[in-house]
Amino acid sequence: MTGIPPAPAVDLTKLTADRTARLRDALAEAPFDAVVLTTPESILYATGYRSVAGALFRAHRMAAVVTAGDCWLVCPAADTAPAVDGGLPADRMVPFGRFYFESAEPTPLTSAADRHPDLYAALETAIKAAGTGLRYGVEGLAAEPALAAAAAGATVVDATGWSGQVRGVKLPGEVELLRYAAVLAEAGVRAALEIAEEGVTEQALAEAVAATMVAGGGEPRFVVATTGPRSALADAHPTGRSWKPGELARFDVGCLYAGYWSDIGRTAVLGDPDARQAGHYAAILAGLDEQLAMTRPGVAAAEVFDVAVRTVEREGIVPYRRQHCGHGIGLAVYEPPIVSPGVVTALEPGMTFCFETPYYNLGWGGMMVEDTLVVTGEGVDLFTRSPRELPVVAV
Amino acid sequence: MTGIPPAPAVDLTKLTADRTARLRDALAEAPFDAVVLTTPESILYATGYRSVAGALFRAHRMAAVVTAGDCWLVCPAADTAPAVDGGLPADRMVPFGRFYFESAEPTPLTSAADRHPDLYAALETAIKAAGTGLRYGVEGLAAEPALAAAAAGATVVDATGWSGQVRGVKLPGEVELLRYAAVLAEAGVRAALEIAEEGVTEQALAEAVAATMVAGGGEPRFVVATTGPRSALADAHPTGRSWKPGELARFDVGCLYAGYWSDIGRTAVLGDPDARQAGHYAAILAGLDEQLAMTRPGVAAAEVFDVAVRTVEREGIVPYRRQHCGHGIGLAVYEPPIVSPGVVTALEPGMTFCFETPYYNLGWGGMMVEDTLVVTGEGVDLFTRSPRELPVVAV
Question: Does residue B141 have a pLDDT over 80?
Fold first, then answer.
């Protein structure tokens, strides 16, 4: 398959060590001594462990208890062996539930089953090991860790905003993984436009996107490829609908690479655009370009939202109603800060964002450009490289 | 790409109508007048609507309020237009939150934003419309619907088991979609073994699986392709590890097709198996074969578990410790009944299962065969068609 970008040379073991160091540095400044991370993304950040089951089952629960110098992974018994394979110490696994690993000699992993009945009981053990007299930050104020820490006599503080801040400023290795995930998604859209012709189905376009992501080592996670009036539906699955001359096609696609997300948007037209298509596209692109132009450290997320809406309206789409015009991206597809009204968070170097100015007009069509970038000392470093003008597919 | 099975000719619009009819028939016999479905799978079952965002965001919430003759979809405003595009009436959308669709003329969809602040408030409206004097079944006893129904003066009953029973016995169209998802996953493993040779990486094997799923219109969702000692890790992501002569490779892979899951397992060896590999494989396969042989309507799920464990131990793996040896599969990858101790649920024609007898021995390796089937009037109709003997990849 052509057009696959070269994979980044990121040492994932070193990256995990770097993330852990960043987390520990932040912990030293935090209003608590230890933190209980409860989202799969923060647990991956802290430990390097990405659970297969965690992405499949809504009921799957884990926690990481992190102190200044140590870390315990509280997880279903089935997660222990792959976590240890990934580099975590076997004696820092605190398993719950029933799953059986065998081995030639008994080990902590072969007796992981039924050590604790549930997450709560395992957390009690982990918190006892980490220290009962500590102040604990709990991400998401998830019930079990908060209760288990409180039961152990610890002080409990909400650490949700804190973990978002720690993860929000990316390390260089994270930036490279996010850049690759973005260019891979972009290559997917390019591949779709290469096979595009009159009559191509949304499903065939989506398959071209997903096949490119897979060929580059990515895991496709959402592939919105919609044509004609369906391009106005925001997030919708592709169907067998055929692309017809004069119609828009809108792509909003993302994949995972080493746990990091992409989320990019592109629009194309089959045959020459009419005046309204060209005009509206120029308006949304101007909005995005103004976002990029004003982005630098110290600017508030809400200001980036305001400039997008103001510009799109000035360029001719009135009203331009949006709840957000972008979002942070990293180990989660949406991370704080969200680029929306009232978000006063100041941009910092190392923050990674998707900026977007989508427009959804039912009956007519939808269009968007969504780009991914990292904030630098002076402005932005844009990950996506496709030409910005409206791609025209020959009829 | 070769080896892609032909896609099934299932009319998805008719299938949605058939599922709705089945749900309504079951409702007529239920100890409640209306049901509030709260899982994405049951909502898809009842409405045909599969939310893109619902699969991406843990915090995404929806509900379907279903009465004998009507149905309301309670959903984020962004989900309204794609749901209506999929065939639901615009006046049966009860949106919450903020998202903007435009159109030439105002419609219920262009004013979906901010109609209700949250799921709870939207449910109050839906339940008022459906009837406040009714008895409501609530799936998962999710807090908001239970509270909203109770606040409206309705009687509230747990409908979790009920919805599992309704969805458990599949319609013919569902069986065909599940069969296709399974043979697509199986074709993926076959493609991986075709490119396999000494030194192939786990990631390359996984890419061959995922590429085949994509080429057949599936959405890869988990691709466990692990070699050597890593094959013992149960669910683990593939790495750059190379497959070496004498080692096992274990595949446990699944994709989505039209919302239906696959989950199949296969094991291979690079070069001729040694006596222990051959013997253990014969034992786990015998366990699976005995499961298939004893399956018929009226048999309890726990009996199918027992025969698997008893057979694998009799054939030489002692102890053979497992928490389950299979599970229902459908719009969720694990559905009741689970094939585990104490599950007295009797098998019925139309129930679809994955049966599996995996064995994970740390340091040595792991092996499994996992097959998917539908229970028939006489026994089983097996979806997977690969040869059952241990595949040997030439060194």
Answer: no
